[in-house]
Amino acid sequence: MSQVFSKSPKHCAERRRFTISKSHKKLFFAFSSFLTLLLAFIFLIWLTLHPSKPQFSLTQADIYQLSLTRPSLLNSSIQLTFLSKNPNKRVAIYYDQLQAYASYKGQQITVDTTLPPFYQDHEEANLLTAFLQGTALPVAPSFGYEVGRDQIAGKIVLSLKVNGKLRWKVGSWVSGRYRFNVNCVSIIAFGPNTAPTSPLSSNRGTQCSTTV
User: Under 8 Å CB-to-CB from 26, ≥6 apart: which residues?
Assistant: First the structure.
């Protein structure tokens, strides 16, 4: 008499659950591996091409005029020379919509001056010159007192700023625009014996802070 081997419904259900569980595991491992490779690739690209922000320094600042026509109206004339450097070995930079101005104790003392856009290749450095002016600019009533006090102290401190937008370039790919701000502090000798017709000059290199 032959024996017939058959599995109970319970055994079939257990086998089906095992099969489905195994398929899910394979799918999960495949998805995890793909995601890990994708994240590793993105991290490698970021690590290789992540651009460093540009470096700016102030090489020269000359004040030709800083005088009050009325107690609260200022005429100013300042010339600046900046050194701009791209520290990146693989990333070039486009500079757009550049504007420069000067401020004194939190008060803007020149109008915004537009600088021409330019392109900066890998590890390239460029000199930028800006001539800033202001005519009958309103300032605080205490402006003349503050300048007089600085003259007695023998120095005047100006904040010289450049704002604009930049684009990173890697090969033929160019990124969108990112706003950046440059702030330089210049300490200029300004004593009681300074000749009225002589420009106040600072030719000491000053490292500027840059935010992107």
Answer: none
DSSP single-letter state for residue 192: T
Distance CA 129, CA 83 (A): 9
Listed in order, strand segments (DSSP E) in 71-203 are 73-85, 92-104, 107-108, 113-115, 118-120, 125-138, 154-170, 173-174, 178-190, 200-202
Give me the residue label for tokens 């489905």. Answer: 20
Across 22-56, b (16+ Cβ under 10 Å) vs e yields eeeeeeeeeeeeeeeeeeeeeeeeeeeeebebbeb
Query: And the tokens for 185?
Result: 């502090």
pLDDT along the chain (212 residues), means of 10: 52 52 73 80 63 92 90 92 94 96 95 96 95 94 91 92 94 89 91 64 78 91
Determine the distance from the C-alpha atom of residue 117 to the mean position of all C-alpha atoms in its chain, rounded to a whole number: 15
Cα torsion for 121, 124, 125, 126, to the nearest 10°?
-30
Tokens representing 86 are 């791209």
Which residue in this structure is represented by tokens 């009533």? Answer: 141
* pLDDT at site 203: 64
- pTM of the model as a whole: 0.74
